[in-house]
Amino acid sequence: MEELFNTYKKIKPDILNRITEFKSVWNNADEKRLFQELAFCLLTPQSKAQNAWKAIIKLTENQRLFEGNSVAIAKDLNLVRFRNNKAGYIVRAREMFFDNSKGIRETLSELTSITEKRNWLNKNIKGYGLKESSHFLRNIGFVEDITILDRHILKNLKKFNVIDEIPKSISEKKYFEIENQMKEFSNENKIPLSHLDFIFWYNETKTIFK
Fold first, then answer.
1. What are the Cα distances from residue 127, in Å, to 44, 50, 69, 82, 90?
2. 178: which of 35, 151, 188, 196 is 20 to 30 A away, CA to CA?
3. What domains lie within the chain, and their CATH numbers?
4. Would you name the residues annotated as active-site residues?
5. pLDDT tens digit sequence for 29-81
6. What is the pTM of this model?
7. Share of the chain above pLDDT 70, in %
């Protein structure tokens, strides 16, 4: 626990800055910027986050993110796994939000709680599960009361005896169970849940990213 608190003290200013940046996305960004984050979270499963973001930047610069078909998009996804499937997910999500009257902001604004927003994303965005839905919401400023249970987080939850073992697969029921255990750990140690996520990620990567 001493290690945990020392790390928190060290990186807390950076955590606060990053959360401010995330909140500014929702407060100030246009639909294309929101979609960048949505597409980024489609690329992260079983791929490095840094590589996924590099792909998003490349797709944006060459305009394929908003105009390219799935074949063209897949050509720029050489840094991520399952690029053909993920290219298809991007096109499908783009059609959902840009070819219809409701964009991302309006759709999410109609849902009152962060839980409702996550449930909607989980059920309606192909390629998203609870983890990706939580990740996207965090990256656009909804940082409270949800967790991103990726391999880095799960490894640290095991390390700090929050969970007994790292599950090989996570059902929705198991996800909620572990999320509640992480919330209890957060409350017991008086570290906000959104900050705890960054601490655990930093423990594994020595960076604070997205």
1. 10, 19, 17, 11, 9
2. 35
3. 2-23+147-205 (1.10.1670.10), 30-139 (1.10.340.30)
4. 131, 150
5. 999 999 999 999 999 999 999 999 999 999 999 999 999 999 999 999 999 99
6. 0.94
7. 100
